[in-house]
Amino acid sequence: MLTKRIIPCLDIKNGRTVKGVNFVDLRDAGDPVELAKIYSDEGADELVFLDISATEEQRKTLIDLVRKVASTINIPFTVGGGISSVEDVAILLQNGADKVSINSSAVKNPQLINDLAQKFGSQCVVVAIDAKQIAGEWVVHLVGGKVPTELNLFNWAVEVADRGAGEILFTSMDNDGTKNGFANEALAKLSTLVNIPIIASGGAGNIQHFVDSFAVGKADAALAASVFHFKEIEIKTLKQELKNNNIEVRL
Amino acid sequence: MDQEKTQSSSTPPSGAERLVIINYGAGNIQSIMFAIERLGFKAVLSNDPAEIKAADKVIFPGVGEASSAMEMLLESGLDTLIPTLKQPVLGICLGMQLMCNHTQEGDTKGLGIFDVDILKFSSKVKVPQMGWNNIYNLKSDLFKGVSENEYMYLVHSFYAPNCAESIATTNYEVEYASALQKDNFYGTQFHPEKSGDVGEKILGNFLKL
């Protein structure tokens, strides 16, 4: 049976992880390769690297990082952040990334989704959508949730699926950072509207939240950052608990 | 093994494995290259028929869309070469599907090595199937030392129905063949290079055939 996936997300700046990480057994808390290896060994099903480098110069170090990660770990990984063209994606894939995640560039230029799907196949095109509720409507936001667009979450999700996205990474800005659980109602609605996998993101605080994202939110995968980085939840324990709750996982 | 680790891939002295990955412009080949290196082997990328023919083992990768991948094979003449190869050949993902008779994707005629037609999953399930699923009914040296029901990483919208050449089965909407073998030809729907340590073991088994 196809299992539900657990995906740690690492924020990368200038080739290093940013935000805190709290692994006592790390030689270098900022080394994404070392962290990737630890997550992979603990049973992560995939990894996401989100590059938040500000300059072109810093971005070059991302390519080196992608190569190092790809040569070290033997599970799939996605790279997102700052991708706006077919060429950007070609370079990442040539260096060993398995998928790319696009967000603002897809909103600004939806044709990019079609172009990437056609050129590289839908399987490597993840469209990330950040949204929050405004007067009861889920509105797509850009720039980490700061800038609202005119797009409705559900309409946009249907459109990106039609254009050839292989997967949707939905982050609820209302839930992100709250540790109060995922936006399960919106997640479940997404799953009924589109027939591609949905990754839940934003709000993970405890193991029950992951259980709910799958059981209630019908998500295919759940992504989190800080609960893993700070070892509030260990991936092994999490997956065992999911199994105990009759959620199929790879142990 | 140790010899192979240190020898250059482009000019292998006698006794070393010559491992060729068919490079016809389809898919992410880098992750296969890295996995092979982790196993202590070296591979060359090539679309040169003479080099492919002379290889001890051949890997036939593929990610992307079937009809355009098949077109690239036709252009390079690899469509006639591949079915005549005598050494062990491993098709991965789309590579495996192209080794079959036909695929519904783009209504594409395949290489006809495996006697089965590739079908599309219905909309009763999410398509593509993406993630880790278990493999069972394992038959073949490819799975030496691999337990039943190990999880492999799969990403695909089309599948090979169970058939006489099936050497592994997976269930997604239907029970289907997640690996095939006929004589020296092997195919895996899953990505051994992305399926953790067990996937690496399967890739290693192929390299040691």
UniProtKB/TrEMBL annotation, chain A:
One of its GO terms (molecular function) is lyase activity. It is found in: Cytoplasm. SUPFAM superfamilies: Ribulose-phoshate binding barrel. The keyword Translocase does not apply. It catalyses: 5-[(5-phospho-1-deoxy-D-ribulos-1-ylimino)methylamino]-1-(5-phospho-beta-D-ribosyl)imidazole-4-carboxamide + L-glutamine = D-erythro-1-(imidazol-4-yl)glycerol 3-phosphate + 5-amino-1-(5-phospho-beta-D-ribosyl)imidazole-4-carboxamide + L-glutamate + H(+). One of its GO terms (cellular component) is cytoplasm. The active site is at residues 11, 130. Pathway: Amino-acid biosynthesis; L-histidine biosynthesis; L-histidine from 5-phospho-alpha-D-ribose 1-diphosphate: step 5/9. Keywords: Amino-acid biosynthesis, Cytoplasm, Histidine biosynthesis, Lyase. Its EC number is 4.3.2.10. GO terms for biological process: L-histidine biosynthetic process. InterPro entries: Aldolase_TIM, His_biosynth, HisF, IGPS_HisA/HisF, RibuloseP-bd_barrel. Pfam families: His_biosynth. It comes from the Bacteria. It is an enzyme of class 4 (lyase). The keyword Zinc does not apply. Heterodimer of HisH and HisF. Belongs to the HisA/HisF family. IGPS catalyzes the conversion of PRFAR and glutamine to IGP, AICAR and glutamate. The HisF subunit catalyzes the cyclization activity that produces IGP and AICAR from PRFAR using the ammonia provided by the HisH subunit. This is Imidazole glycerol phosphate synthase subunit HisF. It comes from Flavobacterium degerlachei.
UniProtKB/TrEMBL annotation, chain B:
PROSITE patterns: GATASE_TYPE_1. InterPro entries: Class_I_gatase-like, GATASE, Imidazole-glycPsynth_HisH. The keyword Hydrolase applies. Pfam families: GATase. Gene3D superfamilies: 3.40.50.880. PANTHER family: IMIDAZOLE GLYCEROL PHOSPHATE SYNTHASE SUBUNIT HISH (PTHR42701). This is Imidazole glycerol phosphate synthase subunit HisH. It comes from Flavobacterium degerlachei. The gene is hisH.
